[in-house]
Design a protein that fits this description.
The protein is of the alpha/beta class. The chain is 50% helix and 14% strand. It has eleven helices and seven strands. It is elongated, with a radius of gyration of 18 Å.
């Protein structure tokens, strides 16, 4: 089947990010070191609750203050949690070329509302997408079924007409079980080669 829709992960594909930096920045607000913040966020499942949309930004603020036993200003916490992204600049021309060639672009990302808003405020990369499928809106995180089902609904084509790239091999393998053509993302040059093998040239002048 010819490819009609491209599904892109966000973190470490469209933008690079650092959870370590996030934990260090949150720790600076509440007198904890980075590893202890990591344990409280990821070890307790709190970060996954945030990314599943189970708690709002306001509730997250309160939960974080409760977990760390320290008051933190709301905007300062949002910034500490979200100022962790840098644009993967070489991916932007690829997206532009795919759009100019008539392909549909769909985001498929485990992310929170705060992180999505931050990326949208700092960069215009997501403006190229026809639809954003996020874990906090789907109520599920990759590799869970509901978020992949939401992505396929947003693709407006058959699974075999989709190409998906993600830096996490587990998520790529899950996509393949749905019949989606998928490859692990390592860098943009490798992606260009993967697309060329499928008859799509994104380096044409």
């Amino acid at each position: 089947m010819p490819i009609r829709t491209f599904l892109f992960d966000m973190g470490n594909v469209l933008v690079h990010f650092s959870h370590e930096r996030m934990c260090e920045q949150i720790g600076a607000l509440c007198n904890h070191d980075g590893p202890s913040v990591w344990k409280k966020l990821f070890g307790t499942g709190l970060q996954h609750d945030i990314e599943r949309g189970r708690i709002s930004e306001v509730n997250m603020h309160q939960r974080m203050q409760d977990v760390f036993g320290h008051e933190m200003e709301f905007d300062a916490l949002v910034r500490a949690s979200s100022d962790i992204f840098t644009l993967n600049e070489p991916i932007v021309p690829i997206l532009d070329t795919l759009k100019s060639q008539g392909f549909r672009l769909v985001l498929l990302s485990n992310t929170s509302i705060s992180h999505l808003n931050w990326v949208q405020q700092q960069y215009d990369v997501l403006e190229r997408f026809d639809h954003l499928v996020t874990s906090f809106e789907a109520g599920a995180i990759k590799p869970e079924a509901p978020i992949f089902e939401a992505a396929l609904a947003a693709a407006h084509c058959e699974p075999g007409e989709c190409f998906y790239t993600d830096d996490i091999a587990e998520y790529v393998n899950t996509a393949r079980t749905y019949g989606i053509d998928a490859e692990v993302f390592t860098d943009t040059q490798a992606l260009i080669g993967q697309l060329r093998k499928r008859g799509i040239d994104v380096e044409r002048a």
